[in-house]
Amino acid sequence: MSASHPRPGFSHPSDLASFLEMLGRFERGEIGADAWRAFRLLRGNYPQRQGGEENMLRVKLPQGIATAGQLRALAEVAERHSRAFAHVTTRENVQFHFVQSAELPAALTRLAEAGLTTVEACGNAVRNVVGCPFAGVAADEPFDPTPYAEAVSRHFLRHPLSSTLPRKFKIAFEGCSEDHVLTPIHDLGFRARVEGGRRGFAVTAAGGTATLCAAGQPLTPFLPAGEVLDLVEAVLRVFHRLGDRQNRKKNRMKFLVRQLGWERFQAEVAAERERVRAEGGARLPFDAEAAPEERAPEGRAPAPSPAEVAALATAGSLTGPGLHPRVSPTLDPGAAAFEAWRASNVRPQRQPGLAAVTALLPLGDATSGQLRALALLAEAYGDGTVRFTRTQDAVLRWVPEEALVGLYLRLAAAGLGLAGAGTAADVVACPGAETCRLAVTQSRGVARLVEDHLRARPALAAAAPGLEVNVSGCPNGCSQHHVAGIGLQGSARKLEGGAVPQYFLLVGGGVVGGEARFGRLAAKIPARRVPAAVERLIGLYQAEREAGESAPAFLARVEVARVKALLRDLEAIDAASARPEDYVDPGDDRPFRPGEETT
What we know:
Blueprint: H1 13-27, H2 33-41, E1 45-47, E2 54-59, E3 65-67, H3 68-81, E4 85-88, E5 94-100, H4 104-113, E6 130-131, H5 146-156, E7 171-174, E8 188-195, E9 198-205, E10 217-224, H6 228-242, H7 253-260, H8 262-278, H9 306-313, H10 335-345, E11 346-348, E12 354-359, E13 365-367, H11 368-381, E14 385-388, E15 394-400, H12 404-413, E16 428-429, H13 443-455, H14 458-462, E17 469-472, E18 486-495, E19 498-507, E20 510-512, E21 515-517, E22 520-526, H15 530-544, H16 551-557, H17 560-571
Helix pairs in contact: 1-2, 1-4, 3-4, 3-11, 5-6, 6-8, 7-8, 9-11, 9-12, 13-15, 15-17
Protein name: Ferredoxin--nitrite reductase
Domain Nitrite/sulphite reductase 4Fe-4S: 122-272, 426-561
Organism: Anaeromyxobacter paludicola
């Protein structure tokens, strides 16, 4: 994963060959549309809501890690086959939209050359195994969980069970005391522990959000690290054998646990573990008590000048429909801007004199030029890699503290020097109705409204550190809005003059102490009024917080009735009070018609 710890790729030559073979069979009429759709989903390829030849292509990045070479490949695919920018998801994937069907083979070929895979990035499979972006450099982790997460990724990629499950299956690994990947909302969540000098994990199972929010339940308080693969396989076997394959709306593992009951589910897993052991089990590719450790890079590439970075980041032009990222290079950001950025975006590593730096990607987007700039900066200042995060940002690690000014100047030159990591200004958003067939609203449009509102009022965002604002276009919650301090879920309200896009506003979600806390519905706010609602909630926190109380903790404590009263006038809208723009979904320029395809 770095110059001192190279990471083999995840692609395989058979992947492209099998894609082309199935495509040919579909085109010759040898398989039907349903079979082709099921296959292409397992290759990370979704049809968009526009239908026809428009596709979303998702690249699986285990633990969110991308090397400089892979960043350049992503940049090239974005430029040649998409809109010249990529989108980072909350599960540490990268995806491209508006990829024409005829261009999929070329895009897959370029990705494979860089060791990148789309296999099982979508569909009923073991999805991307996510990991903490600060793993290996955090001061408070008992050990680095990354090698174990990577071993799970490799063992179950193309595993016979992985692509034949009743429904998708999500796994997360965390080592820090703060849960950066939200382990309790995953089908399996692993938290690093050391007991009696042995490495292991506390494991939770059957978490999830969407239409049924469920916190993962403790499956075992301590799983010896050497048994990770066997446990995952045992749980997958139970899910594979007993999961519901008929009712798509109730076939995640949380529904199976509800059906069986927790005690029977545990018994089924225990019995499968015995069978897996009897068959010989699976071994980690390293000593479970002495996993490979990252080391500081032994050499770094020369740094490009800020002017060179700015030229690279602004090269080319963005194409295609939808909201585009706004690239605003800054060549002289000033000392005050650096200090603000350093306060929010820089995190000391446990290795003395080194830091992990977060580069914000508004709406999770990065242009081809910015991806190439990140590659250069990772090689010049970091270990030659970045880690994408669930907050849709990129982290560069192993940055010498004395080089922070130089790195900041170049990130600013790339339009990636925004401060505010971990604040409400770093809004998280799913792709929404711009491309997704399931979405009701264009979540990206409202997310940009909120971000612009808070960026214009920096003191407001700074007043509520740790507060997340997550926006989803539907209940499925791809922005993870159910576990945000302020969660927004797209919906529609019918008025006499037409339909108004609105958002269910949830407050108080989060993951604290290893437990998930789901947001409570407090109001239904017309889309154009959402920024005002966020501002009022931050004001409420400032006015009524207890000493030392954080914004997320306050929003978890405050009475819903108090919030509802605060937002009542924003919530109320009728045909007489609605303005013409209230009938237009932010991010679109046409009257809002939920369910209609966008162009």
